[in-house]
Design a protein that fits this description.
The chain contains three helices and five strands. With about 120 residues, the chain is of the alpha+beta class.
């Protein structure tokens, strides 16, 4: 994902793009993307098609991401899982549900990345 917030990301300055960011994903039409580059590439392809009417991306209802409880945070720390924008990250993997991340971490210990 881009390291800059969407309002400061030069890639989103293309006026035709219409790619909102909800704190977790970039959206173009009915699709969601983790990386702004992927959303922009698809938007560019769509806009390059002759005669294709481009409708603006529908307004989104921004999600409220879960905040881990104290007990969940302890489990996360024990297994090296971090939570960012509502996703649980273990090693190179991202999960929407903490239980899935914990199950994988229990089966494959040692994938967590040390803090940088």
């Amino acid at each position: 994902m881009s390291s800059l917030p969407p309002s400061e990301d030069p890639a989103t300055s293309e006026p035709w793009a219409g790619i909102p960011f909800d704190g977790r994903a970039y959206h173009f039409r009915q699709y969601s993307y983790d990386r702004i580059e992927d959303a922009l590439n698809y938007a560019r392809l769509e806009h390059a098609r002759p005669g294709l009417p481009i409708a603006a991306t529908a307004p989104l209802c921004w999600p409220h991401f879960p905040v881990p409880t104290e007990q969940e945070r302890e489990q996360m720390t024990e297994h090296g899982i971090v939570c960012q924008a509502g996703r649980y990250i273990y090693g190179p993997y991202r999960y929407d549900v903490l239980a899935d991340a914990l199950n994988y971490a229990a089966r494959w210990p040692g994938l967590h990345r040390p803090p940088s």
